[in-house]
Known about the structure:
Blueprint: E1 3-10, H1 16-25, E2 30-34, H2 47-52, H3 54-72, H4 88-112, E3 116-124, E4 129-134, E5 141-150, E6 154-156, E7 169-170, H5 172-175, E8 184-188, H6 192-203, E9 207-211, H7 223-235, E10 239-241, E11 244-252, E12 255-262, E13 265-271, E14 273-276, E15 280-282, E16 315-317, H8 328-342, E17 356-358, E18 363-368, H9 371-376, E19 381-387, H10 392-396, E20 403-409, E21 415-422, H11 425-437, H12 442-447, H13 457-466
Parallel strand pairs: 1-2, 1-5, 2-3, 5-16, 7-14, 8-9, 8-14, 9-10
Antiparallel strand pairs: 3-4, 4-5, 6-15, 11-12, 12-13, 17-18, 18-21, 19-20, 20-21
Amino acid sequence: MSEKFDVIVIGGGPGGYVAAIRAAQLGLKTACIDAFTGKDGKAAPGGTCLNVGCIPSKALLDSSKHFHHLNHDYKAHGISVENAAIDVPAMIARKDGVVKKLTGGVSQLLKGNKVAFYHGKGKLGAGRKVTVTPLDGGDDVTLSADNVILASGSVPIQIPNIEFDGEHIVDNVGALDFDHVPETLGVIGAGVIGLELGSVWSRLGAKVTMLEALPDFLAMADIDVAKQAAREFKKQKLDIRLGAMVQSAAVKGGKVNVTVEIKGKESEMTFDRLLVSVGRKPYTDGLLEEDSGVSLTGRGQIDVDDHCRTSAPGVWAIGDCVRGPMLAHKASEEGVAVAELIAGKHAHIHFDTVPWVVYTDPEIAWVGKTEQQLKEEGIEYKTGSFPLAANGRALAGGQGTGLVKMLADAETDQILGVHIFGANASELVSECVVAMEFQGCSEDLARIIHAHPTLSEAIHEAALHLDGRAIHRGN
Ligand code: FAD
Ligand code: NAD
């Protein structure tokens, strides 16, 4: 006899566990199946995000930022420290503690909401039958449900001629767990993971070289932000080589030899460690029986419509395994929306207002369209900007690097995009997301009182500048 649920969620990352909790809140009998196993060998719901993604990377970014400031920036404040040292195992143990606290918290939340949790591999068959293969031993269990939500996430893309060995050539998992600071670190792909994890080890003393295939740096960000960020990261000694086509990499004598072609010229580089961060791909291995009725796209994503419905009736898919940005908050919002649709409520996700953040120092954050996109789409726009070097709070904190740039429709003044490079950009962008979600205009932000002295005044000034009336910069 198989146990019957209203909703079964396969995958317990920020997409899956959030969907399960919301479904349970709505009175639906819900199960969540997740295969992640923590370092202690026990179930660790929370997916990539909590275990080997967002949270551990931010823990290491924060630790390494403290170390970097201690060595480079505190002197200007009159604070001197001699022989500051980094204890890598202690830093990693702190990170692991943060992860354990949060994955334990998710287990408690699932329990508190009466979600039946299975630590195992779930496989969907015809008629929404789900087979669970437990990871802690025991026989397979068969479940069924009126609705199944697939939230199986993503895995790193591997490139030809480069094999991960988990020690010298690593993905995000390995680079979050080095037991010492490598003298030299090669990074293939100067995208979000490359920049964040490259920054961590660079701040701790590694000589970091990034090999990026594209000719432009951070092509997905606004061009002015990308330019300023490239200048700043160069100052921070991140050696970013653009137009670099890596041919192969091999481990020899404990070092990684990389063959790379840059601007038509082939060369050899040697690193102590190599991080491959060239994007992620949907993970659907062992998820679907042949008769599940769920179709995949040519790119291996689970094919869904705007409301996350798959080709099989009553089967939905969310998060990294479907189209759209691979971001935790996007996965969670889809999870909430699907649970509400299942419960017969109205739900809709605005992909136009999904914020992006790159947690470098300073941070990069944006919402909406870049100037390049507006040009490509032939949309008439106005621009306003404000440098953090003219913001009192930024200067007081020694954080005068960066800018806020705002783009608004030339005719209606509706905000089309806001791009921030600066301290706390991850928090500052929220105001802009709210404004855009309410279809606000730059004039709305220009007329809102911003506390003084705050970094948010730079957003106020960028909005004023858009109309040629910034107070603290020459228009
Ligand atoms: P996942 O988090 O990948 O979860 C999927 C879960 O499903 C996993 O636990 C997996 O084991 C399980 N699973 C898969 N198949 C099965 C099956 N058949 N049966 C049972 N369980 C299964 N995003 C941000 O928004 N902000 C950040 O700062 C950020 N930082 C990141 C840093 C790094 C280093 C990485 C790698 C990613 C980062 N991301 C960040 C991206 C973010 O982690 C993902 O977008 C997010 O985790 C996607 O959530 P998800 O629920 O779709 O999938
Ligand atoms: P990414 O898409 O951000 O960057 C990959 C980079 O690798 C790109 O610049 C690409 O041009 C380059 N590249 C691709 N193939 C290459 C090759 N053969 N040689 C050299 N360069 C190559 O991907 P990522 O950094 O691996 O991260 C994966 C996803 O995880 C991101 O897209 C993002 O959605 C998510 N993530 C988000 C955050 C965050 O929100 N702060 C942090 C980390 C990861």
